Amino acid sequence: MPKCLWTAITALALLITASAAASANPLPINQLPMYGGRAKTEEMKSADADFIASMEKSGLSRADGAKQVLGRGWAAWAKGDTTTAMARFNQAWLLDPENGNVYHGFALITAGRDGTASEVERFFRLATSRPKVDAEAFVDYGKFLWMVKRLDESQAELNKALRISATARNARSHVAFTYYLKNDFTNACTWAREARNNGDELERGFLEEMCNRAGKPDEGKPASPAGPPA
Fold first, then answer.
1. pLDDT at residue 8 above 70?
2. What global pTM score does this model have?
3. Which residues of 162-192 are buried (b: 16+ CB within 10 A; e: fewer)?
4. FRET partner for 211 with CA separation of 20 to 30 A, picked from 52, 85, 158, 204?
């Protein structure tokens, strides 16, 4: 079994088997999505008001301020600094709770911290239910869904990503992988070709294997050499 596939399966197992006790999180309030729904002290409320006022003073609307803070959060996420990322995502949520990209960030950090599958999906659902959300949220939600073996739902979310952005990165490669899991090698081949043309990430040899298998659709279950996109 290739390393990347084993990594995906291990991550899924961690999501599903995380105990309920893990939800009693000792993290500080600014490290919990939406501040954990906890009551804030007067000092915290004052700090929130000052933060919002500083954004407005700089000439930014709350929505624009949220986008700016989100950018800082994603930059921290890209560096592996989830502590800073979560703090910035919470600030963005404080400014504009209708921005779906905030909940996308919550979903990814919750998954990385071994939150339960239901917790992760809750944030993906919040993200994709908002009118202001980027295609990447649907791509990552689609990936999450195939990891929990909900293949039709995964394809639906990945196609939503492509309706938002025809070049959504890795949407096609994930669709190809869902077809592989369905033993539909013809469609897996077609989507893998499109993924390659779009510059998506594909497991080495995946495209060739799917297209070779497309001529022999009756060979049964996929063999282990194929692995998921990154």
1. no
2. 0.82
3. bebeeebbbbbbbbbbbbbbeebbebbbbbb
4. 158
